[in-house]
Known about the structure:
The structure holds two protein chains of two kinds. Helix content of chain A is 6%, strand content 39%. Chain A has one domain. Chain A has one helix at 14-21, and strands at residues 26-30, 36-37, 52-56, 60-69, 82-88, 96-101, 114-122, 125-132. In chain A, β1 and β2 form a beta hairpin. The two termini of chain A are 31 Å apart. Chain A is mostly beta strands. In chain A, the strands form two sheets. A five-stranded antiparallel sheet of chain A has the order 6-5-4-7-8, with helices on one face. A three-stranded antiparallel sheet of chain A has the order 2-1-3. By secondary structure, chain B is an alpha/beta fold. Helix content of chain B is 30%, strand content 19%. Chain B is built from eleven helices and eleven strands. Chain B has helices spanning 27-42, 63-69, 87-100, 145-160, 164-178, 192-197, 264-276, 294-302, 311-314, 333-336, 343-353, and strands spanning 9-16, 51-56, 77-82, 106-114, 200-202, 205-206, 215-224, 237-246, 285-287, 367-374, 377-384. In chain B, the strands form two sheets. In chain B, strands 3-2-4-7-1-8-11-10-9 form a nine-stranded mixed sheet, with helices on both faces. The longest helix of chain B is centred in the N-terminal third of the chain and has 16 residues, at 27-42. Chain B starts with 8 loop residues before the first strand and ends with a strand. In chain B, 60% of the residues are buried.
Amino acid sequence: MTAKPQPQPTPLTEPYWAAASQGKLSLQRCTACAVWHHFPVPRCTSCGSDALTFEPVSGHGTVETFTIVHRSFAPGFTGAPYAMAWIALPEQAGLRVFANVTDCLPETVTIGMKVTVWFEQRGDFALPNFRPA
Amino acid sequence: MTPSRFHHAVITGAGCTEFSRESGRSVLELAIEAADLALADAGMERGAIDGMLTYQLGDSVVCATMARSLGLDRLRWHNDIHGGGSQCASILGEAALLIEAGLAETILIYRAMNGRSGKRMGQIGQGAGDGMEEQFLRPYGFLGPAHLCALSSQLYMHQRGLSADDLAELVIAQRAKAAKNPRALLRTPLTRDDYFAAPMIAEPLRRLDCCLETDAACALIVTSTRNAKSAAQGRPIHIRAAVRGGGPGIAAMDKAGADPSAIFSRHVAPLIYEAAGLAPSHIDLLQLYDAYSPLILQQLEDFGFCEPGELHEIVRDGRLAQNGRLPLNLNGGLLSEGYVHGLNNVIEAVTQLQGRAGERQTPGASMALCTGFGGSMGSAAILSVEP
């Protein structure tokens, strides 16, 4: 079976993955207007500033929507069904991260489920994933 | 009723190749065949074409190649638009604008693809960003438009209290329509058991909720009313209005704002009614982009054909049938006829308005809504028999 893909960071996103390797979920934040951004942006979409940094978030979240993939062409994912979800974060309305929901049967995942981040080691990277809180 | 936005532009011809899973021909050959069929339908020769528009995702032939292959040397305008399903309605508006401006007289619109045997549509990237987003998606097993739609539809159906039963009704009904369509790839009637036996791809989407990758080409001729030939096989069809737009939602769900289930129709519906000076009650034929079955539900609600609480009824009460008040996707749609990035759904609207749909004909169709989906971006056009 093909290995699951590793992320390919760009200069813009490198701090996110570096923090993940340290076991921290860190998201981009504008130092001018304090708005969080994920996925990272080259300039703040709220105020236009380029003074952006990365700050840790709590790692708690809620399943906003999800799908259970049964038949996948995705490399490394062609086996058992798996759950992918957008996780809404409490730090800001509309702030969300994408991940697998693990450590539970996929069919038990629901919209509104409370989840907590954990880090899956994959090659040289640590991937933020979520499990039931 | 407001008159057409485009007084001088009419659709006078349409053509499609055979729909197949393996054409055995180049995309160029498919495109030429569809173009020649559309010209014959319009009662025109190749040399009449002085404008050309196509859309593609790096999987087709560009206008310059087509022009050379058709022996055209007097194009006054052509454009290769990067895009997929979102283009199928707005491209009519672009053709009409060129004619209104006097910049071209007779425009060939085409979409040609070996979407199954060549570059497979179901496996293209999300395509909504600059590629940076892939690192946040692919490591988690996210691949292609079906996953994007599944995530959106799951939330939408949860919000509206819809179930697989509702999708089954839609899918079965569209297959029944396709049974009357000789061109349709899938014509075998379906039962509820068939629907529920179909393998789950990504919840809530079973295989039967997803359109079928197709090898085919479709083409349309848009020309000036002055130039519309009496030799045309069918009556000229007017383009009353077309819009293109979008907003936050599923195309880039990371930036989806408050409701990541929102698709293009949430943003485009008010635009098309305003542009056309019409209301939902004026529409009597729906050719809605249905690459995935739940997209139909969202569009029925967003375009004002039913209240959110009525979705459960509208898929069951006959309104969407051939003889209903709101006939829907009478070709079988992208789900059953085939998937030529929506242009085939537009062609069905033209055929129905011309009264040439044979066994599939809905009585008295005079005003059709056609849509193009590209996540939270998209387009809509209203076509009519009367100017």
